[in-house]
Design brief:
The chain is an alpha+beta fold and 325 residues long. The protein has helices at residues 18-28, 51-54, 61-67, 91-100, 112-121, 125-141, 171-176, 241-248, 276-285, and strands at residues 37-42, 45-50, 82-84, 145-146, 163-164, 183-184, 191-192, 207-219, 228-229, 235-240, 252-253, 265-271, 289-301, 312-324.
Length: 325
């Protein structure tokens, strides 16, 4: 995405104060007001790298931020790290490219279009061009894919509403006869197996998502005191990768399983927030309903956990199973 204004996209709108001008001159002379090691908070993901890495591509957004501006002009988070409101998961590939100017992606990487958008935002034209070429080559190598109505499906795998074109056996009647184990999309298009079936209202696939959390609370002597609940440390998400991303979007932390293909299952995702009701709201808005839940608990006396002698500390693990037909 070529930007007409070379200063467009800078956090302060491209304006350079007198202090920034002197800082840029000093940087050109080999000195910078930035530390050699910089900490970045990108959409909640923390990265630590060398300043020379982020300024390795001249005229890029990061180059202008860390060579043409002063540290005081850049936004920071509560811990003083430089803040970028972008996709924290995809930024790891931006940073890898900046280190040696090479593009290396996992074998199954479904986020090429989104990564290309990030490359355009950070104004890395060579990276954006390579990603566009890779997408074009992938589309060219893919077998002929058609909708049932005859329209081409250019950039989607067959699972998302397209089928590979095959000669029908038994004539037109056989081609039009629905399978007893298949479902038809609202457009009258592809026939899909039950595991790939689409919701008639919004073109959404059916499936299951399991939400789990571990919590603890303390009850005082003879339960006379109010229960003291402790903060839920983490809400885990189990299920198909594509469904989890559809429901939770940017609130899904994929750092423990970043390269999982969309049609594979995972039990290593967790949410960036700690409110169960927020997770339930998202699932409900996506058309899921609770199908089952289970919980286990253990009890220990306070001294064993470093608490008062008369307190009982209960620890529980709870799972909620949601489904969408």
């Amino acid at each position: 995405m070529a930007l007409a204004d070379s200063a467009r996209g800078l956090p302060n709108g491209g304006g350079v104060s007198p202090a920034a001008g002197s800082g840029a001159t000093a940087a050109a002379g080999g000195w910078s007001a930035f530390p050699e090691i910089v900490e970045l908070n990108v959409g909640g993901q923390v990265y630590v790298t060398r300043r020379c890495t982020v300024v390795s591509v001249r005229d890029s957004l990061l180059w202008r931020m860390f060579s043409q501006q002063q540290p005081s002009e850049l936004p920071r988070d509560s811990k003083g790290r430089f803040f970028l409101d972008r996709d924290g998961f995809l930024f790891r590939y931006i940073l890898d490219y900046l280190r040696d100017l090479q593009l290396v992606l996992p074998e199954h990487f479904p986020e090429r279009s989104r990564l290309q958008r990030e490359a355009e935002y950070f104004q890395l034209p060579d990276l954006a061009r390579r990603l566009a070429q890779a997408r074009a080559a992938t589309a060219a190598a893919r077998p002929a894919v058609l909708h049932r109505d005859g329209s081409l499906c250019a950039d989607e795998p067959p699972l998302l509403g397209c089928l590979e074109a095959e000669p029908a056996e038994g004539g037109a009647a056989a081609a039009s006869a629905p399978s007893p184990t298949a479902s038809r999309s609202p457009s009258g298009g592809p026939l899909l197996t039950p595991s790939q079936s689409l919701d008639g209202a919004g073109g959404r696939r059916s499936g299951y998502i399991t939400i789990g959390y571990r919590g603890s609370y303390t009850i005082g002597r003879e339960a006379q005191a109010d229960a003291k609940f402790r903060r839920v440390a983490r809400i885990t998400v189990c299920g198909k990768t594509a469904l989890a991303k559809e429901v939770f979007g940017e609130t899904l932390n994929e750092s423990r399983d970043p390269d999982r293909p969309p049609e594979r299952y995972t039990a290593r995702y967790y949410l960036k927030f700690n409110f169960l009701e927020q997770a339930f709201d998202r699932l409900s808005e996506a058309g899921f309903r609770m199908a089952a839940c289970s919980s286990t608990g253990t009890c220990a006396f306070g001294p064993e956990q470093g608490g008062p002698a008369e307190d009982k500390i209960w620890t529980s693990y709870t799972e909620y199973v949601f489904c969408r037909d």
